[in-house]
Predict the structure of PPFIA binding protein 2.
Amino acid sequence: MAEFRRGGLRATAGPRLSRSKETKGQKSDHNAPFAQWSTERVCNWLEDFGLGQYVIFARQWVTSGHTLLTATPQDMEKEMGIKHPLHRKKLVLAIKSINAKQDEKSAQLDHIWVTRWLDDIGLPQYKDQFHESRVDGRMLQYLTVNDLLFLKVTSQLHHLSIKCAIHVLHVNSFNPHCLRRRPVEENNVSPSEVVQWSNHRVMEWLRSVDLAEYAPNLRGSGVHGGLIILEPRFNGDTLAMLLNIPPQKTLLRRHLTTNFNVLIGPEAQQEKREITESTAYTALTTTAKVRPKKLGFSHFGNLRKKKFDESTDYICPMDTNPAATNGTQKNYGGHKGLSPLTDRELDQVGQTD
């Protein structure tokens, strides 16, 4: 047998274990601006971005990052086969951000994080639609009423739930860990803490006020701390309805309302009372639907052009300037109260800014 000697070649040795030295071209490509990215690098970026299904067409069409930077949404549909409107929107927003050299915090939250966020705000039933549409943090920021309808979110209550949840993200600079899932202390909880409660945290609170048997009814309801505090029409009766507490159980409902009022604090309580007593008040229900905007007769000529226009009827307008916000100037730890929205007004959200 051959004598064993040190220094021979082993299968695990060699460059596979260490990073191969980059060539000059690769190194400069790594630090290059997006416009100068190679086709391969753009394709890898699309893959990481969650749009890997378009890489085959991108390889044939994209010569460098510049191709995407100058592409119109029509080009994206024609050359890359991106027929899904939200996939197009995702790519358009990302490219705009690169062009403007914006470092948006929301861009750090990917589409996998958004599906977990839907769990947190009590709307897990929409996870498949959001995941398939690759909705990420940046898209949440620019989500419109029509986008939500495309995602099959038609319930008015669920629109309001998503609106309030995005508002909470805005105020917390899109901090991925801003929602509270577990109780720390049930006593002396301030409204500024409640506004960050997840759906599960609200259920924990129900258990603490002896309503454990009704807590599971909140699954899939869209109830979270942001909706409870920021939506003026959300009151004790709304919660009782969502918990399926029968109207004849008056003592139980009174017990819930008393604890609910203690939870939200006097400021929110007063605001909710004023809204309830106003003549224009309509109670929130589980059956109210949001309808797509009807186009006026004059719009028909623009239909083809408008297909690729970026709608600005954001579900949660980004302008947090009190003078421009269509809401009350109450403040719950930096969270402004949001104005109540009817079916008709919800279709127009964002156009008042």
